[in-house]
Amino acid sequence: MKNKQLIECVPNFSEGRDMNIIKQITDVIERVEGVKLLDVDPGAATNRTVVTFVGEPEPVIEAAFQAIKKASELIDMSKHNGEHPRMGATDVCPLVPIANISMEETAKYAHKLGARAGSELDIPFYMYESAATKKDRKNLATVRAGEYEGLPEKLNKAAWKPDYGPAKFNAQTGATAIGARGFLVAYNVNLNTTSVRRANSIAFDIREKGRIKRKGGKVNGAILTNKKGEPLRTKGKCKSVKAIGWFIEEYGVAQISMNLTDLDATSLHKAFEACNDSAVSRGIRVTGSELVGLVPLKVLLDAGKYFLKKQKRSLGISELEIIKIAVKSLGLDELGPFDPQKKIIEYQLRDIGSAPLLDMNLKEFADETASESPAPGGGSIAAYVGALGISLGTMVANLSSHRRVWDHRWDEFSNWAEKGQDLKQSLLNMVDEDTNSFNAILNAIRLPKSTEEEQKNRNIAIQEATKYAIEVPLSVMELSIKSFEVLKHMTLTGNPNSISDAGVGALCARAAVRGAYLNVLINSKDLNDEKYVTSTLKKALKLVKQADKAETEILKLVNKALDK
Predict the structure, then answer these.
(1) Would you please indicate which residues are annotated as catalytic (active-site) residues?
(2) N or C: which end of the chain has fewer CB within 10 A?
(3) CA distance 192 to 190
(4) pTM for this prediction
């Protein structure tokens, strides 16, 4: 998926109870080539299903059109009821820029979808957020005001003429809002109460627009207004958060239902903590939460690190462990199992088999290395040995952070452990990258060479692939050199009971540098660019000398400590 333009589409359909209808809608999405269905999240109480799919722009808007069309055939809005605000069979259909595409370009695709759907389907369409044609249509809540029941009157007003489609009420389909927006997280926080009124009070405390001011601060007091007659408001705690309270019958609890529209302004964990603080002040307790649809990886990593900091625990643990902390701290598994592989967008977007070596267990990896295939070879092994070396240094940092007598130093060692984790992941990425670079040379060699032009292009491709096959082990050398800083610091200041582990880590790091150096040497023999080869070998030899020196210093410290 490198360099491809990717957009995500998150249509919300007004059906969350009849799985046969939902399946028919998602089937038409999956039939479109170039689109990947990521998530289907139905809700019985809301009678609404949030579907998430991704792909390049043209296939995505084709799949969106087919889904809107199918929903218009299967869903009868005149019979719909549910907790969530809604105005159409396909209630909203936002497009979200994911990779290599701007919001402006995404908005153009939203209009392309609206124009086609408006001309081919008997449905009114309104454009919202970054695709809005008018300022007062930017906010989805404004566009959807009055909901389905208010559409007959709304469509008779010139000010609410649809952007696309007929300005007439379609009793079966209602109307649809199509938009282009940033990544939105739909997030619900569970309460130990059944009271919608109390849930709404918490929602008003935290949502950006807050609550309407009333005379004397009384619930039934007269609404206070400004000179224009507009209600005055007390702002809520969280910027870029929309929230309401509702009761979910299938769970038997009230929830605060939120849309987080700017994660830089208000993170998931900040919204959770704000709900918790408000709930506690009202004698209520937050029991957990749920994510509707998918979430970016960074959201859960930030949350996990936030809660680890509160516990004064090291942040330098694996990605999956950080996610586990986030899930448990936010109670994301209270209402059902939470599978990170299905709920995190980056995990869903990973190409199947994109990291074949890293997907293997230790025995499979060793067996594959020992087979008659030339790859994986020394380059991949050097990268993996380097990853093992820095992993040992990271382990020492984490053990030191959690050492009982060093509680005051937890953040110092946590910082070192984070550095180690970053280096570990970068070196692991190089394991498969080295094999990929070898395969690139083989693919270049297999190119046709019948004509003079083909021969010329083949030679260029071979040289480019060879240069890349040099740069990969060179990167392994550079990354492994950086790991010596962590290893030396852990040898000098880390948990003395683990000093031998730091020593083994140094041995691995040096082996990684020297092993990768051999790959730089052998691949340099086949490159015609003498200037590049001379410069690269000079740089690589310097790294070898640094590694030899660093390993000697660390082992000297380790042996001295062990001889005592």
Answers:
(1) 84, 434
(2) C
(3) 7
(4) 0.79
